[in-house]
From TrEMBL:
<dbReference type="GO" id="GO:0016020">
    <property type="term" value="C:membrane"/>
</dbReference>
<dbReference type="InterPro" id="IPR036259">
    <property type="entry name" value="MFS_trans_sf"/>
</dbReference>
<feature type="transmembrane region" description="Helical">
    <location>
        <begin position="137"/>
        <end position="160"/>
    </location>
</feature>
<feature type="transmembrane region" description="Helical">
    <location>
        <begin position="39"/>
        <end position="57"/>
    </location>
</feature>
<keyword id="KW-0472">Membrane</keyword>
<feature type="transmembrane region" description="Helical">
    <location>
        <begin position="199"/>
        <end position="222"/>
    </location>
</feature>
<feature type="transmembrane region" description="Helical">
    <location>
        <begin position="322"/>
        <end position="340"/>
    </location>
</feature>
<protein>
    <recommendedName>
        <fullName>Protein unc-93 homolog A</fullName>
    </recommendedName>
</protein>
<feature type="transmembrane region" description="Helical">
    <location>
        <begin position="94"/>
        <end position="117"/>
    </location>
</feature>
<dbReference type="Pfam" id="PF05978">
    <property type="entry name" value="UNC-93"/>
</dbReference>
<feature type="transmembrane region" description="Helical">
    <location>
        <begin position="385"/>
        <end position="405"/>
    </location>
</feature>
<keyword id="KW-0812">Transmembrane</keyword>
<keyword id="KW-0325">Glycoprotein</keyword>
<feature type="region of interest" description="Disordered">
    <location>
        <begin position="438"/>
        <end position="457"/>
    </location>
</feature>
<feature type="transmembrane region" description="Helical">
    <location>
        <begin position="69"/>
        <end position="88"/>
    </location>
</feature>
<dbReference type="InterPro" id="IPR010291">
    <property type="entry name" value="Ion_channel_UNC-93"/>
</dbReference>
<feature type="transmembrane region" description="Helical">
    <location>
        <begin position="286"/>
        <end position="310"/>
    </location>
</feature>
């Protein structure tokens, strides 16, 4: 096997192991630690840390340590989060969440940079077009990585499936599930009963082992790479801190970006709702915590398949059709969730919603990033720093109000953000289509390699 492909596979399986652990834990935070809203507070803190670090930390760390050791260090932050869950309290989980937030932006920036470099190296070696090889490598990475949502949640459901079977949930308790759920984060009910401490420790032990394996795999088998500069440019130093920070915010002078910041914020809002509210107020409330993993498997599997499908489909349909599909799908889900009264007798419905949500999320993850890459081709670094920043802000806000708003209000907020984001996107699309040689028109059939820099925490 040629060296560059081996490195891509090592990176992919390292992320698979790491996010098998982290993804499974994230899905359970709101259900496991519902007392005083600790679980969602931890997630809000995590994305707050990411919000701050995405503005300056990635280029500094990558410049000092290189991609490989930045990846190893950032992965250690994720392992610390698993360890913090062993003795979950405000004094352990919140600091661990801050660590993950600081490491997350660096992790994803280093991942994108590493794959781009090895893709271009391979292209130079074989005489292929750089963007084609980079796109291929990103495709391999996400094909492997996206399955982490399946394995992490499968492990949690199998472990918690050892819980004693609970009795029938009273009808009056079921009336408080779904959109009717208000302040459930601070109320303990039979349906949200914690698994035994032994089962929790078993699960955390498995997840921590996966994290350590990921760090070991990267440290031992991933080869360090250096970015080759084009001829005539000479040695290029990493931009200073203030230059990186200013370039991120200076791009906001572009009216198109000011309109499009709602798209990454929508991505944060909708993912936060599924992992923080749907898992707790619908699945755990009506079925029990042992079903959270199975429900999230549907989301992860459909998201992964549709990400690959939509990346190819965009070349033939254009992005507008896919954005319309994502908006209509999510709109239908929001309206249905407002009206639906979850009940254990309707078991298949609990899996339909995350599957449709995964389809819509695949549109946002692939097409949002590709759109940013095409529109801001000359300022890609600043554009994607903005993308990560505004997506993280969406997570922070959504998890921040999670503990004191009714689920119905959260759905109306999400509906408002979705409507505003689509209106803003439509305005940008219309403006760009009026330019004969606008970048959006030119990039309509461009492969969505930039979409691979998505931030999936």
């Amino acid at each position: 096997m040629e060296g560059n492909l081996k490195n891509v596979l090592v990176l992919s399986f390292g992320f698979l192991l790491l996010f098998t652990a982290y993804g499974g834990l994230q899905s359970l935070q709101s259900s496991l630690y519902s007392e005083e809203g600790l679980g969602v507070a931890a997630l809000s803190t995590l994305y707050g840390g990411m919000l701050l670090s995405s503005m300056f930390l990635p280029p500094v760390l990558i410049g000092k340590l290189g991609c490989k050791w930045t990846l190893v260090l950032a992965m250690c932050c994720y392992v610390a989060f698993s360890l913090g869950n062993f003795y979950a309290s405000w004094y352990t989980l919140i600091p661990a969440s801050v660590l993950v937030g600081l490491g997350a932006a660096a992790l994803w920036s280093a991942q994108g940079t590493y794959l781009t470099i090895v893709g271009n190296m391979q292209a130079q070696k074989t005489g292929q077009v750089g963007k084609d090889v980079v796109s291929q490598y990103f495709g391999i990475f996400f094909l492997i990585f996206q399955s982490s949502g399946v394995w992490g949640n499968l492990i949690s459901s199998l472990v918690f499936g050892q819980m004693p079977t609970q009795g029938t949930i009273p009808e009056e308790q079921l009336q408080a599930c779904g959109a009717s759920d208000c302040l459930m984060a601070t109320v303990s009910t039979n349906s949200t009963k914690r698994p035994s401490q032994d089962l929790i420790y078993t699960l955390l032990g498995i997840y921590t082992g996966c994290g350590f394996l990921a760090v070991l795999l990267m440290a031992v088998f991933l080869e360090p790479v250096r970015d080759a500069q084009p001829e005539g440019e000479g040695e290029k130093q990493a931009p200073p801190f203030w230059s990186t920070l200013l370039s991120t915010f200076k791009l906001l002078r572009d009216k198109r970006l000011r309109l499009l910041i709602l798209l990454p914020m929508l991505s944060g809002f909708e993912q936060a709702f599924l992992s923080g509210d749907y898992t707790r107020s619908y699945t755990t409330c009506a079925l029990g915590i042992q079903f959270v993993g199975y429900v999230m498997i549907c989301f992860g599997a459909v998201d992964a398949l549709c990400s690959v499908l939509f990346g190819r489909l965009a070349r033939h349909t254009g992005r507008t059709v896919l954005f319309a599909l994502g908006a209509v799908t999510q709109l239908a889900c929001i309206i249905a969730l407002l009206l639906w009264k979850p009940h254990p007798s309707q078991l298949p419905v609990f899996f339909v919603f995350p599957s449709l949500w995964g389809m819509a999320d695949a549109v946002w993850q692939t097409q949002n990033n590709a759109l940013f890459g095409v529109l801001f081709e000359k300022n890609k670094e600043a554009a994607f720093a903005n993308y990560r920043l505004w997506e993280a802000l969406g997570f922070v806000i959504a998890f921040g109000y999670s503990t004191f708003l009714c689920v119905s209000i959260k759905l109306y907020v999400l509906l408002g953000v979705l409507s505003a984001a689509m209106a803003a996107y439509g305005a940008v699309e219309y403006t760009e289509s009026r330019k004969a040689d606008g970048p959006l028109a030119a990039g309509r059939t461009k492969p969505a390699e930039e979409g691979a820099t998505q931030t999936k925490l």
